[in-house]
Amino acid sequence: MDDQTFRTAMGKFATGVTVVTTQHGEDIHGMTANAFMSVSLNPKLVLISIDENATMLDFINKSGKFAVSILNEDQKDMSAYFAGQNKELKEVNFKWFNDMPTIEGSLASLTCEVYDSVIAGDHTLYIGKVTDIHTTKGDPLAFYEGKYRQISDCAEVK
Q: Ranges for the Flavin reductase like domain (predicted)?
């Protein structure tokens, strides 16, 4: 199989959209990621996947912690900005939560300490031990077949 066939197949899996953030010293760094999942309830663990060429890799390795903001349906601009697709947004007003920068207005914010990491192919998988969570109500921003989607775009399953 070629790379495009693999990408097409993986695009058939609908995901939520997150922004992963961290801070090292005075420097804050963030990136959009849809490679996020829960791993364990006891202890509370989540997983993120970071490309070996991403600047975020060095930031997480130095800080030993990260935050995950699960975006709401109105935060496509935040996703695009942290994915490097939109250069117009100049300043992000972070919501500081548990001493970590998170995206204001997100559906959920989780702060994590790196619990473990595994190099897998061209990515590093970080398992984070969740140290705190904040949630709000709303509908998520979704990603499917390479496009942003909203839950309202989908037919209700009964």
A: 10-150
